[in-house]
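Section 4.2 – Deliverable D4.2 (structural model, holo form)

The reporting period included a commitment to supply a predicted holo structure for the target in complex with NDP. Inputs used:
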Amino acid sequence: MTNIISGKELAATMRQEIKEETARLYEKTGKQPGLAVIQVGENPASSVYVNNKKKACSEAGIKSFGYHLPDDVTQEELLDLVHTLNADRNVHGILCQLPLPDHLNEFEILRAVSPQKDVDGFHPYNVGLLSVGKKTLVSCTPAGILEMLVRSGIEISGKECVIVGRSNIVGKPVAQLMLSKNATVTVTHSRTKDLPAVCSRADILIVAIGRPRFVTADFVKPGAVVIDVGINRDDVGKLVGDVDFEPVSEKAGWITPVPGGVGPMTITMLLANTLEAFRDINAVS
Ligand code: NDP
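Output (C-alpha coordinates):
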Protein backbone atom coordinates (compact mmCIF):
# COMPACT_ATOMS: atom_id res chain seq x y z
CA MET A 1 0.00 0.00 0.00
CA THR A 2 1.22 3.49 -0.81
CA ASN A 3 2.33 5.70 2.04
CA ILE A 4 0.96 9.22 1.85
CA ILE A 5 3.48 11.74 3.15
CA SER A 6 1.36 14.35 4.87
CA GLY A 7 3.18 17.67 4.72
CA LYS A 8 0.29 19.10 6.69
CA GLU A 9 0.93 16.80 9.66
CA LEU A 10 4.72 17.11 9.54
CA ALA A 11 4.39 20.88 9.29
CA ALA A 12 2.09 20.97 12.35
CA THR A 13 4.66 18.98 14.36
CA MET A 14 7.51 21.24 13.25
CA ARG A 15 5.57 24.43 13.91
CA GLN A 16 4.93 23.26 17.48
CA GLU A 17 8.67 22.57 17.90
CA ILE A 18 9.49 26.04 16.53
CA LYS A 19 6.96 27.66 18.86
CA GLU A 20 8.51 25.92 21.88
CA GLU A 21 11.98 26.96 20.74
CA THR A 22 11.04 30.64 20.27
CA ALA A 23 9.51 30.61 23.78
CA ARG A 24 12.70 29.05 25.21
CA LEU A 25 14.89 31.61 23.44
CA TYR A 26 12.67 34.45 24.65
CA GLU A 27 13.14 33.23 28.25
CA LYS A 28 16.88 33.13 27.68
CA THR A 29 17.43 36.38 25.75
CA GLY A 30 14.32 38.53 26.22
CA LYS A 31 14.22 38.79 22.42
CA GLN A 32 11.83 37.50 19.81
CA PRO A 33 12.70 36.52 16.23
CA GLY A 34 11.38 39.04 13.67
CA LEU A 35 10.51 38.59 10.00
CA ALA A 36 10.03 41.51 7.60
CA VAL A 37 7.68 40.71 4.73
CA ILE A 38 7.77 43.04 1.72
CA GLN A 39 4.96 42.98 -0.82
CA VAL A 40 4.82 45.17 -3.91
CA GLY A 41 1.51 45.83 -5.65
CA GLU A 42 -1.83 44.06 -5.43
CA ASN A 43 -1.21 40.58 -6.90
CA PRO A 44 -4.02 38.54 -5.20
CA ALA A 45 -1.95 35.34 -5.01
CA SER A 46 0.89 37.28 -3.34
CA SER A 47 -1.57 38.74 -0.82
CA VAL A 48 -2.73 35.22 0.11
CA TYR A 49 0.88 33.99 0.52
CA VAL A 50 1.88 37.04 2.55
CA ASN A 51 -1.11 36.74 4.88
CA ASN A 52 -0.45 33.01 5.38
CA LYS A 53 3.16 33.74 6.25
CA LYS A 54 2.25 36.48 8.75
CA LYS A 55 -0.34 34.21 10.41
CA ALA A 56 2.15 31.33 10.66
CA CYS A 57 4.69 33.71 12.24
CA SER A 58 2.28 34.91 14.88
CA GLU A 59 1.30 31.32 15.78
CA ALA A 60 4.97 30.39 16.16
CA GLY A 61 5.94 33.33 18.36
CA ILE A 62 7.76 35.16 15.56
CA LYS A 63 7.07 38.89 15.11
CA SER A 64 6.20 39.86 11.57
CA PHE A 65 6.60 43.35 10.10
CA GLY A 66 4.60 43.93 6.93
CA TYR A 67 5.65 46.44 4.24
CA HIS A 68 3.09 46.80 1.47
CA LEU A 69 4.45 49.08 -1.24
CA PRO A 70 2.59 50.53 -4.25
CA ASP A 71 2.93 48.97 -7.70
CA ASP A 72 4.95 51.95 -8.95
CA VAL A 73 7.59 51.90 -6.20
CA THR A 74 11.02 52.62 -7.68
CA GLN A 75 14.05 50.36 -7.53
CA GLU A 76 15.81 52.93 -5.32
CA GLU A 77 12.91 53.15 -2.86
CA LEU A 78 12.73 49.38 -2.55
CA LEU A 79 16.51 49.12 -2.13
CA ASP A 80 16.36 51.81 0.58
CA LEU A 81 13.79 49.77 2.48
CA VAL A 82 15.91 46.61 2.20
CA HIS A 83 18.98 48.50 3.49
CA THR A 84 16.96 49.88 6.42
CA LEU A 85 15.73 46.38 7.31
CA ASN A 86 19.27 44.99 6.98
CA ALA A 87 20.29 47.41 9.75
CA ASP A 88 17.21 46.87 11.96
CA ARG A 89 18.13 44.85 15.07
CA ASN A 90 14.55 43.63 15.54
CA VAL A 91 14.50 42.06 12.08
CA HIS A 92 16.26 38.71 11.63
CA GLY A 93 14.69 37.63 8.36
CA ILE A 94 13.72 39.61 5.25
CA LEU A 95 11.56 38.26 2.50
CA CYS A 96 10.45 39.98 -0.64
CA GLN A 97 7.35 38.30 -2.05
CA LEU A 98 7.88 37.35 -5.70
CA PRO A 99 7.09 38.01 -8.47
CA LEU A 100 7.97 41.71 -8.46
CA PRO A 101 6.55 44.06 -11.13
CA ASP A 102 8.57 44.06 -14.38
CA HIS A 103 10.16 47.49 -13.87
CA LEU A 104 12.02 46.22 -10.78
CA ASN A 105 15.28 44.28 -11.04
CA GLU A 106 14.47 41.20 -8.96
CA PHE A 107 18.03 39.86 -8.89
CA GLU A 108 19.45 43.16 -7.59
CA ILE A 109 16.78 43.41 -4.89
CA LEU A 110 17.43 39.85 -3.68
CA ARG A 111 21.17 40.53 -3.78
CA ALA A 112 20.71 43.60 -1.54
CA VAL A 113 19.26 41.50 1.31
CA SER A 114 21.89 40.76 3.95
CA PRO A 115 22.88 37.09 3.48
CA GLN A 116 22.47 36.63 7.26
CA LYS A 117 18.80 37.69 6.96
CA ASP A 118 18.12 35.94 3.65
CA VAL A 119 15.50 33.51 4.99
CA ASP A 120 14.32 32.66 1.46
CA GLY A 121 17.83 31.42 0.63
CA PHE A 122 17.85 33.28 -2.71
CA HIS A 123 20.98 35.44 -2.20
CA PRO A 124 23.79 34.33 -4.55
CA TYR A 125 26.14 34.08 -1.56
CA ASN A 126 23.86 31.53 0.15
CA VAL A 127 23.22 29.72 -3.15
CA GLY A 128 27.01 29.47 -3.51
CA LEU A 129 27.46 28.12 0.02
CA LEU A 130 24.84 25.47 -0.69
CA SER A 131 26.62 24.44 -3.86
CA VAL A 132 29.95 24.00 -2.06
CA GLY A 133 28.21 21.95 0.63
CA LYS A 134 28.45 24.46 3.51
CA LYS A 135 25.81 25.17 6.11
CA THR A 136 23.60 28.07 5.05
CA LEU A 137 20.03 29.36 4.82
CA VAL A 138 18.47 27.08 2.20
CA SER A 139 15.56 27.99 -0.04
CA CYS A 140 12.34 26.98 1.79
CA THR A 141 10.70 24.55 -0.65
CA PRO A 142 13.83 22.40 -1.19
CA ALA A 143 14.56 22.50 2.55
CA GLY A 144 10.97 21.39 3.22
CA ILE A 145 11.28 18.50 0.77
CA LEU A 146 14.44 17.25 2.47
CA GLU A 147 12.81 17.57 5.89
CA MET A 148 9.81 15.51 4.67
CA LEU A 149 12.06 12.74 3.38
CA VAL A 150 14.15 12.65 6.55
CA ARG A 151 11.19 12.77 8.93
CA SER A 152 9.48 9.98 6.94
CA GLY A 153 12.57 7.80 7.44
CA ILE A 154 13.31 7.58 3.71
CA GLU A 155 16.87 6.57 2.87
CA ILE A 156 18.53 9.03 0.45
CA SER A 157 22.17 7.96 0.34
CA GLY A 158 23.01 5.95 -2.78
CA LYS A 159 19.50 6.34 -4.25
CA GLU A 160 18.74 7.46 -7.80
CA CYS A 161 17.02 10.84 -7.56
CA VAL A 162 15.47 12.42 -10.65
CA ILE A 163 14.30 16.03 -10.48
CA VAL A 164 11.92 17.39 -13.10
CA GLY A 165 12.35 21.18 -13.42
CA ARG A 166 15.51 23.30 -13.06
CA SER A 167 14.25 26.58 -11.56
CA ASN A 168 16.44 28.60 -9.21
CA ILE A 169 13.91 28.31 -6.41
CA VAL A 170 13.14 24.57 -6.54
CA GLY A 171 14.88 22.34 -9.10
CA LYS A 172 18.48 23.50 -8.77
CA PRO A 173 18.66 23.91 -4.97
CA VAL A 174 16.84 20.61 -4.33
CA ALA A 175 19.40 18.94 -6.62
CA GLN A 176 22.22 20.38 -4.49
CA LEU A 177 20.55 19.21 -1.29
CA MET A 178 20.00 15.68 -2.59
CA LEU A 179 23.61 15.57 -3.78
CA SER A 180 24.75 16.68 -0.32
CA LYS A 181 22.86 13.66 1.06
CA ASN A 182 24.71 11.36 -1.35
CA ALA A 183 21.91 10.66 -3.81
CA THR A 184 22.83 10.14 -7.46
CA VAL A 185 21.08 13.12 -8.99
CA THR A 186 19.68 13.74 -12.49
CA VAL A 187 18.11 17.13 -13.25
CA THR A 188 15.67 17.19 -16.17
CA HIS A 189 13.83 20.02 -17.96
CA SER A 190 11.75 20.88 -21.01
CA ARG A 191 14.49 19.79 -23.46
CA THR A 192 15.14 16.41 -21.83
CA LYS A 193 14.74 13.52 -24.28
CA ASP A 194 12.41 10.67 -23.32
CA LEU A 195 11.45 12.06 -19.94
CA PRO A 196 9.31 9.05 -18.88
CA ALA A 197 12.31 6.71 -19.37
CA VAL A 198 14.62 8.99 -17.35
CA CYS A 199 12.03 9.40 -14.58
CA SER A 200 11.33 5.70 -14.34
CA ARG A 201 14.93 5.14 -13.17
CA ALA A 202 14.19 7.18 -10.05
CA ASP A 203 13.99 5.80 -6.53
CA ILE A 204 13.07 9.36 -5.55
CA LEU A 205 11.22 11.47 -8.13
CA ILE A 206 10.79 15.19 -7.40
CA VAL A 207 8.54 17.10 -9.80
CA ALA A 208 8.41 20.93 -9.99
CA ILE A 209 7.24 22.12 -13.40
CA GLY A 210 3.84 23.78 -13.06
CA ARG A 211 1.87 21.48 -15.44
CA PRO A 212 -1.33 19.94 -14.04
CA ARG A 213 -1.13 16.11 -13.72
CA PHE A 214 1.77 15.96 -16.20
CA VAL A 215 3.55 13.02 -14.56
CA THR A 216 1.56 9.85 -15.16
CA ALA A 217 2.12 6.29 -13.92
CA ASP A 218 4.39 5.60 -16.96
CA PHE A 219 7.01 7.90 -15.43
CA VAL A 220 7.17 6.04 -12.13
CA LYS A 221 9.16 3.01 -11.00
CA PRO A 222 7.11 0.67 -8.78
CA GLY A 223 7.71 1.55 -5.12
CA ALA A 224 9.34 4.93 -5.86
CA VAL A 225 9.05 7.99 -3.63
CA VAL A 226 7.18 10.73 -5.53
CA ILE A 227 7.35 14.34 -4.32
CA ASP A 228 4.92 16.65 -6.10
CA VAL A 229 5.82 20.34 -5.78
CA GLY A 230 3.40 21.68 -8.40
CA ILE A 231 0.45 23.88 -7.49
CA ASN A 232 -1.96 24.24 -10.43
CA ARG A 233 -5.62 24.72 -11.20
CA ASP A 234 -7.04 22.15 -13.59
CA ASP A 235 -9.75 22.81 -16.23
CA VAL A 236 -12.51 22.86 -13.62
CA GLY A 237 -10.56 25.02 -11.16
CA LYS A 238 -9.51 22.19 -8.83
CA LEU A 239 -6.16 22.55 -7.07
CA VAL A 240 -3.87 19.80 -8.41
CA GLY A 241 -0.18 18.99 -8.53
CA ASP A 242 2.16 18.17 -11.41
CA VAL A 243 1.56 14.46 -10.73
CA ASP A 244 -1.55 12.51 -11.71
CA PHE A 245 -2.20 11.51 -8.11
CA GLU A 246 -4.67 8.59 -8.32
CA PRO A 247 -2.89 6.30 -10.84
CA VAL A 248 0.58 7.25 -9.61
CA SER A 249 -0.31 6.54 -5.99
CA GLU A 250 -1.23 2.97 -7.01
CA LYS A 251 2.31 2.44 -8.28
CA ALA A 252 4.48 4.57 -5.97
CA GLY A 253 5.68 3.48 -2.53
CA TRP A 254 5.40 7.00 -1.10
CA ILE A 255 3.68 10.09 -2.45
CA THR A 256 2.90 13.66 -1.38
CA PRO A 257 -0.63 14.97 -1.99
CA VAL A 258 -1.62 18.38 -3.37
CA PRO A 259 -2.85 20.23 -1.39
CA GLY A 260 -1.40 19.20 1.99
CA GLY A 261 2.03 18.05 0.79
CA VAL A 262 5.00 20.27 0.01
CA GLY A 263 3.06 23.55 0.40
CA PRO A 264 2.67 23.55 4.21
CA MET A 265 6.34 22.55 4.59
CA THR A 266 7.49 25.57 2.57
CA ILE A 267 6.03 28.10 5.03
CA THR A 268 7.27 26.01 7.95
CA MET A 269 10.83 26.18 6.64
CA LEU A 270 10.49 29.96 6.41
CA LEU A 271 9.78 29.95 10.16
CA ALA A 272 12.68 27.55 10.76
CA ASN A 273 15.03 29.76 8.72
CA THR A 274 13.93 32.87 10.63
CA LEU A 275 14.65 31.09 13.91
CA GLU A 276 18.03 29.99 12.54
CA ALA A 277 18.89 33.55 11.45
CA PHE A 278 17.86 34.84 14.91
CA ARG A 279 20.19 32.32 16.58
CA ASP A 280 23.03 33.20 14.26
CA ILE A 281 22.64 36.99 14.56
CA ASN A 282 22.36 36.84 18.36
CA ALA A 283 24.98 34.08 18.71
CA VAL A 284 22.56 32.12 20.89
CA SER A 285 21.78 28.41 20.86
P1 NDP B 1 9.40 27.54 -13.16
O1 NDP B 1 8.38 27.92 -14.16
O2 NDP B 1 10.39 28.55 -12.69
O3 NDP B 1 10.25 26.30 -13.74
C1 NDP B 1 9.61 25.22 -14.33
C2 NDP B 1 10.62 24.20 -14.74
O4 NDP B 1 9.92 23.09 -15.28
C3 NDP B 1 11.60 24.68 -15.80
O5 NDP B 1 12.90 24.23 -15.50
C4 NDP B 1 11.08 24.02 -17.08
O6 NDP B 1 12.08 23.65 -18.01
C5 NDP B 1 10.48 22.75 -16.53
N1 NDP B 1 9.43 22.25 -17.41
C6 NDP B 1 8.35 22.91 -17.87
N2 NDP B 1 7.62 22.13 -18.68
C7 NDP B 1 8.27 20.95 -18.73
C8 NDP B 1 8.03 19.74 -19.42
N3 NDP B 1 6.96 19.60 -20.22
N4 NDP B 1 8.89 18.72 -19.27
C9 NDP B 1 9.97 18.86 -18.46
N5 NDP B 1 10.26 19.99 -17.77
C10 NDP B 1 9.41 21.02 -17.93
O7 NDP B 1 8.61 26.89 -11.97
P2 NDP B 1 8.90 26.77 -10.38
O8 NDP B 1 10.05 25.88 -10.13
O9 NDP B 1 8.89 28.12 -9.78
O10 NDP B 1 7.55 26.06 -9.91
C11 NDP B 1 7.17 24.79 -10.40
C12 NDP B 1 5.82 24.42 -9.78
O11 NDP B 1 5.99 24.32 -8.37
C13 NDP B 1 4.71 25.44 -9.98
O12 NDP B 1 3.48 24.75 -10.09
C14 NDP B 1 4.73 26.26 -8.71
O13 NDP B 1 3.47 26.84 -8.43
C15 NDP B 1 5.06 25.19 -7.72
N6 NDP B 1 5.70 25.68 -6.50
C16 NDP B 1 5.23 25.21 -5.33
C17 NDP B 1 5.80 25.57 -4.15
C18 NDP B 1 5.25 25.00 -2.89
O14 NDP B 1 5.52 25.51 -1.82
N7 NDP B 1 4.55 23.88 -2.94
C19 NDP B 1 6.91 26.54 -4.08
C20 NDP B 1 7.42 26.90 -5.39
C21 NDP B 1 6.82 26.50 -6.55
P3 NDP B 1 13.00 24.75 -18.79
O15 NDP B 1 13.98 25.23 -17.76
O16 NDP B 1 13.63 23.95 -19.87
O17 NDP B 1 12.06 25.82 -19.27
